[in-house]
Amino acid sequence: MKRQFDLDWIRVLATLAVFIYHCFMFFNPWAWLVKNNKTDPTYITAVALFMSSWLMPIFFTVSGMNSYYALKKRSGNEYMMERLARLGVPLLFGVMILTPPQVYMERVSHGQFSGSFFTWFPQYFNGVYLDIGGTGNFAFVGLHLWYLLVLLIFSIITLPLFLKKKPAITKELKSYQLYLMTIPLMIVSTFVDVVRLAGWDITFYLILFLFGYFILTKESFKKVIQKLLPINLVIAVCTTIFFVYGFFSDMSSTGFIAAMVFASIKALNCWTLILVIFAVAEKHLSFSNKWLSYSSQASMPFYVLHQPVIVTLGFFIADETWSIPVKLIFLMVTAFCIIMLLYHFIISKVAILRILFGIKGEKKPKSEPNVKIFSS
Fold this sequence. Notes:
Elements (H helix, E strand, L loop, with lengths): L4 H21 L17 H10 L2 H19 L2 H34 L7 H4 L25 H19 L10 H6 L1 H10 L4 E2 L2 E2 H13 L6 H28 L7 H29 L5 H28 L6 H22 L5 H6 L20
Antiparallel strand pairs: 1-2
Helix pairs in contact: 1-2, 1-3, 1-11, 1-12, 1-13, 3-6, 3-9, 4-6, 4-12, 8-9, 8-11, 10-11, 12-13
């Protein structure tokens, strides 16, 4: 089965985008674990808003596609065992080891606690952490690791369906069908409010996960999105402008009709941006090299580590008098270097850490040129 290198590139670049997004969260006015002493409600917020419209949705879409390719090579039991090892173990490790210091720093920075981490740590198990600034401390979702938990749940509940019904990959995909797929996304975005994570309801992510498995794996998908690229690009640009303007003008609070229009445009913007990303990646990133091999394996540890490192650095520089651009550059460069140094020199070389951080396969001997690629 031919490797879909464009999907690997999308996942790697999306992981880097999450890192940038969380660096921006330190400076925008939205609630977060630690905040800079000055925030920017303009350009940093606008960029973060744009990124939030497609970032986590594309993770779930790609994960749905990768589920199809995984089940082509594995039995249902093998698929679940791999998911538990690749998602469940890093999640558990994150909840018990990486999350408590972040919650502690949130409590201190929000004036909810004063004292050392070791004095506070027994309180980690007091109540369930549900929101930033709340009173519960036990973050069972691992804060930013909620993606691993939700993807693991999706993998479990959809497996019987995936085993019973395979995608009709040879069936021709029509252009209008891709646009009809926005209807359930608009409905969920407008009317469904079960659990909202990173700006979208959990059912929105489930629909994209199913779309990835059943629709985006069709053989004609890539041909159709290339044909529609100019149209989708225009729609994506127009809806992005509308979405950002609507957010800053607080459009969703001006009435039910306005809120419905805003939510529908937001969903359309998300879907067309996803199609544009897939089309561009298929056209320009359908290749592999040593950088992809390395970064593909590093992407899971990078994802698991990035927020704890950003939060820790932010905690210590929050009250410095530096300008926002200087702090942003310092935060991004320093956090990136720390994460990559930890991965390259420690995590990738220690067997138990490779397991805890969800790295696929055993460490390759130096004589072997190829590195196993992680795919979720």
